[in-house]
Amino acid sequence: MKNVLIDSQLSNKINDYVYQYARENLISKWTIGSTDKDICQAILESCTIVGMTKISESTGLNRSHLYRAFGPNGNPTLSTVMTIIKYFGLQFKVETI
User: Fold this and answer.
1) Could you tell me which residue, 9 or 58, shows the higher pLDDT?
2) What is the model's pTM?
3) pLDDT grade, residue 86 (50/70/90)?
4) Which end of the chain is more exposed for a tag (fewer CB within 10 A), N or C?
5) CA 80 → CA 28, 43, 60, 66, distances in Å?
6) Between helices 36-50 and 63-70, what is the axis angle to 10°?
7) In whole angstroms, what separates CA 30 from the centre of its chain?
8) What is the pLDDT of residue 14?
């Protein structure tokens, strides 16, 4: 039983690290001057790092829809982008320039 608890704790720790890595990947690539394609690629990379099935189950978005929306020819809706951003614990901030 002790091994199961240790394995569970290790698995949770790894999942936390993977999530944080994916989140930081998204933040680092979403900069001023990023194109739509850059942002879609960053979102796709971060979702792939965490696992598209896990993202799909957590957000309610269809897995194949995510691949299409953020793929090379994708054109995601703002709602889809916002759902993924929220999953990663982020938000848009609108400021005057």
Assistant:
1) 58
2) 0.81
3) very high
4) C
5) 20, 11, 10, 8
6) 150
7) 12
8) 77
Given a contact cutoff of 8 angstroms between Cβ atoms, the answer to whether 74 and 50 are in contact is: no
Q: Judge whether 59 and 87 are in contact, CB under 8 Å.
A: yes
Distance of CA 41 to the CA centre of its chain: 11
Region of 89 (left: φ > 0; alpha: ψ -120 to 50; beta: rest) is left
Q: How far apart are CA 30 and CA 92, in angstroms?
A: 11
Please choose, from the candidates 60, 55, 62, the residue with its C-alpha nearest in 3D space to the C-alpha of residue 18: 55
DSSP 71: S
Q: How many residues does the chain have?
A: 97
Quote the CA–CA distance of 55 and 65 in Å, as a whole number.
12
**Distance from C-alpha of 46 to C-alpha of 18, rounded to nearest angstrom:** 9
Numbers of helices and strands, H then E, in the chain: 5, 0
pLDDT at 3 over 70: no
